[in-house]
């Protein structure tokens, strides 16, 4: 007499838990080593990045530190496979006075550089960065200002170009002392020069260890303070012209 073979039925609490744990581990690996989604929380990088932009940050661009891991566990110091950012990179980093906060700014100065603002003009190592007025913007969604705002194109010494806003003549950050960037640190500034808390002010010099990753492309953008989950608002609020746009230009 042959005994009928019994098949093990799939499912059960144990298998469900196993699948969930594997999925969570995979998500942690991807977020820690490859990509991390990031949403723009403020207008400090206008007109390059707007509130409501969602982008991916590449985690391997500058190597890995404790800040590459969720909650920044104090497992090791420094960076593994670290590489220095380039001038003009738009980078996400941990706010030095409070590493629980993520900041996103443009890398302007590298170790040993002397950085200064004079009457709204950026100087690096004593030389004025090329700055050309290219027009004005009157779109409140881009400028947050109900008036025309001057727009400038800056070109860094390495050829990286980007646009900046000039909201006010003679603003607090338009003229500064000369900053000398220390070893293993960088100097960061927002493209919205008159409305950015950056290395000129409370951020100070940023340790290389605080780098999280480099911003690459915008994968979604929604205006009017809408949530991406509010699908019914997409037809009127999604900024279609910003999808897959570079996050650094």
Overview of this structure, please?
This protein is mainly beta and 249 residues long. The protein has a single domain, classed as Umud Fragment, subunit A (Ribbon). Helix content is 12%, strand content 31%. The strands form three sheets. A seven-stranded antiparallel β-sheet has the order 1-2-14-3-4-12-13. It has a four-stranded antiparallel β-sheet with strand order 7-6-5-11, with no helix packed on it. Strands 8-9-10 form a three-stranded antiparallel β-sheet. A hairpin with a 5-residue loop joins strand 9 (149-155) and strand 10. It is globular.
Topology:
Layout lengths: L12 H22 E5 L13 E6 L31 E5 L7 E8 L4 E5 L2 E4 L2 E2 L1 E8 L2 H4 L5 E7 L5 E6 L12 E2 L4 E5 L16 E2 L3 E11 L12 H4 L12
Antiparallel strand pairs: 1-2, 2-14, 3-4, 3-14, 4-12, 5-6, 5-11, 6-7, 8-9, 9-10, 12-13
Main location: membrane
Family: Belongs to the peptidase S26 family.
Subcellular location: Membrane
